Amino acid sequence: MHADHDFALVLLAAALCTFGSWVVSSLYRHAMTRPKGQAVIWYFVAAVTAGIAIWCTHFIAILAYQPDTPVSFDLQLTFASLMIAIFGCTFGILLAGMFKTKSATVLGGTIFGLSVSAMHYAGMVAYRVEGTVIWDQNYLVASVVLSVLLSTLALFFGRRQGKKYTLRMTLALSLAIITLHFTGMAAFKVTAGEMAADYSNPGEFKLIAFVIAGTATLIVLGGLFTYFIENRTRMESIEELRKARDEAESASRAKSEFMSVLSHELRTPLTIIIGYASILSGIKDKTTSKLKPDEPITETHFNTVGDQAQLYGKRVKVAGKHLLTIINEILDYTSIELNDIKLDKTTFAPRDVLVEVEDQFKGLASEKNAELETEWDNMTVRADRSRCQQILINLIGNALKFSQASKISIRAKQQGTGFRFEVEDNGCGIPEKDLQLIFQAFTQLESSDNRKEGGTGLGLSISKKLSIAHGGDIRVESAVGTGTKFSVTIPDSLIVEMPGAQIEDSGYKENAFTAAA
């Protein structure tokens, strides 16, 4: 008998086998890294993909075999061979993958190899030829043994770490399928019966082969696509977790830095208060101890003690106000974090707020040799006046303490149906990389060891949250060596707009303060 193979179909079967084996290897190794609940799903996807890819490879290779005798297929047995492949591969892969022991891998590989062999020979029984079939038992046994050994080796490679083992598993699985088929075909001997001289197997077999190959490819691609989607999602989740971890570590470092700063800030006013309180408590005894025996306390003594008590009392008051400011900032931030911001909106003129905060900072501006300028549009707005003042105090205080500016401009300007505050200085500026960092709580550009000025570092964070609570926001523009401009928008708050909004020159002369002068 002369038997031949269609070389194109053989190559098609080999290509499908290799591609299917690579997808199965990728899915199996991916399942090995997943939690138990997810792993079961991925083992099942890998097993179904393996069963379909192996069966389609076998069927196309059968169609490639074209003996010189009529052939047909038993559809029920052919379908049964497909079920054997799917269920056998599923059981073998689940057993090896879920238990992950050597013995489980050997047993899983054996079941996998035997199921592939059973699929092959069930398909061969379903392959009906007009003639006498003789089986070579040596080749038959060899095909089964090779299938079991190579399948087991493939599952062992699937347990190992490293990308190279995906390729090794692919190679071992491909060899298990190919050697099983062609060794099994070598065991298949056909003696043709009588037939017409011009007989040839129908060309529809090739069409069927391509249809099966296309269907199998789509199914295998579906498994591969699912793997890529899940893997990408997992990598994105890992990246998100990594970012969250980095942010948590950064927040932890910032909080530690903040606690270091806060301990220093609290210690300073407390030390002053305790020190001067001690002096005040002993001032009477210290004064009377200097009197001579039977010397009366005169008005001079009374005035001296009073002057000292007044001086020390003022210093205690200043330190107490400083301490109260720190505590208020912490309480404000805590309330804001708990979404407990309560705005007490009233009607007021922003001009009045500018004048008040300018007057409040005249002393500090004098110490820093800085000039304060105010500029406003004549308007009446509705917002939380005290919170707006708090925002300005934070911005102006930072500009005076940190910017090293010689001029600070404070403005209130109309913007649409609302208004905005601006605090602009001509100081050292802020690096672009730090422009968003400055609004984070517990974050300061200067470390606690290098700080030259006081403060908790919560001012800008509180100001931003208060701006957002008004329905607005706070923006910053800065250039190193040129200066910084903060803009606070309070939308939908305008009540009255006075015509001829302007910069009042007389107001500049009256409100501006030049420390150098």
Give a verbal description of the structure:
It is a single chain. The protein has 3 domains: 3-191, no CATH class; 258-337, Helix Hairpins, CATH 1.10.287; 345-514, Heat Shock Protein 90. Mean pLDDT is 81; it is low at 447-451 and 500-517. The chain is an alpha+beta fold and 517 residues long. Helix content is 63%, strand content 15%. The radius of gyration is 43 Å and the shape is elongated.
Number of E-type strands: 15
Radius of gyration: 43 Å
Instruction: Please report which band the strand proportion falls in: under 5%, 5-15%, 15-25%, 25-35%, 35-45% or over 45%.
Output: 5-15%
The description of the largest β-sheet is: 6 strands, mixed
Helix-strand pattern, N to C? EHHEEHHEEHHEHHEHHEEHEEHEEEHE
Distance between the termini: 118 Å
Strand order of the largest sheet: 12-13-11-10-8-15
Structural class: alpha+beta
**Number of continuous helical runs:** 13
Question: Which term fits the overall shape?
Answer: elongated
Mean pLDDT: 81
- How many domains make up the coordinates? 3
What brief labels describe this structure?
disordered C terminus; Heat Shock Protein 90; Helix Hairpins; 3 domains; 13 helices; alpha+beta; single chain; 517 residues; 15 strands
Give a nutshell description of this structure.
This protein has 13 helices and 15 strands. The strands form 5 sheets. It has a 6-stranded mixed beta sheet.
